[in-house]
Design goal:
Elements lengths: L1 E5 L3 H12 L3 E6 L17 E4 L3 H13 L4 E3 L8 H10 L3 E4 L5 H17 L6 E8 L9 H13 L5 E4 L6 E8 L6 E7 L4 E7 L4 H14 L4 E3 L1 H5 L2
Parallel strand pairs: 1-2, 1-3, 3-4, 4-5, 5-11, 6-8, 7-8
Antiparallel strand pairs: 6-9, 9-10
Helix pairs in contact: 1-6, 4-5
Length: about 240
């Protein structure tokens, strides 16, 4: 498979490594210093583009690929306000898009457990829920897309909260705390606490390898497909 990597930071380099290990070819690498290379001529022989950039650049990058009928796997977070419009465009124009806030298989197992636990805890109002996430100091968005996904799952199943807020003391909202420390790849923790006890779910990434592997598996999955996909489709949850 011929892959274009859009965004050649630490994640982009890890994706390149995993893709080559799985016998794919990297035919195009685009970063902020050569963004003009993301053009029709260079995209001619690309099977799938994998996009991990910044919230400001992601949407334009994805549309550029759509214009050239290139399936896109994106892991960029922080642009969710444009998500619905982009998804509608994708569906109406028969494009191909795979999006996840987190490509780690472990995190997506956590998502499944988190959703189920939220349904159970909805019946126990004496527990207060908290989400905490820790990432490296270079991560631009706060809270993380993964933390938002976890929060939305809880809100879908827990009728006691109006929404989520970052660093809130308002008990009507689900509190998310964000920390930026060193080179931490990603830690997410959900805590339910009462006066009697505490229940915790957590996931800690040891490196970016798990995220990169998930993104390459997603690229393999959507080749020759049309539509909108996510990790539930890939992992068949």
């Amino acid at each position: 498979m011929n892959i274009a990597i859009i965004g050649y930071g630490k994640m982009g380099k890890e994706i390149e490594k995993i893709a080559l290990e799985r016998n794919h070819k990297i035919n195009l690498i685009v970063d902020e210093d050569n963004i003009s290379d993301l053009n029709s001529n260079n995209l001619k022989n690309i099977d799938v583009a994998v996009e991990f950039t910044t919230p400001e650049a992601a949407v334009n990058n994805i549309y550029k690929c759509f214009e050239n009928n290139i399936p896109v796997v994106s892991g960029t977070t922080g642009w969710i306000d444009d998500y619905d419009n982009l998804i509608n465009f994708c569906k109406q124009n028969n494009k191909t898009f795979f999006y996840a806030s987190n490509y780690s298989i472990g995190v997506n197992i956590l998502f499944e457990i988190n959703s189920h636990l939220a349904k159970i805890m909805n019946n126990f109002n004496d527990y207060e829920v908290l989400i905490e996430e820790t990432h490296h100091i270079y991560k631009l968005d706060k809270p993380s897309g993964t933390a938002i996904s976890l929060a939305n799952q809880i809100l879908e199943n827990n009728k006691n909260k109006k929404g989520w807020e970052l660093e809130t003391k308002n008990k009507e909202f689900l509190n998310i705390k964000s920390y930026r420390e060193g080179e931490v790849p990603g830690i997410h923790k959900i805590t339910y606490k009462s006066d009697i006890d505490k229940l915790e779910l957590s996931h800690s990434a040891f490196s970016r390898k798990g995220f990169a592997r998930g993104a390459v598996l997603a690229a393999e999955f959507i080749k020759d497909k049309t539509g909108v996909f996510n990790m539930k489709d890939l992992l068949q949850f």
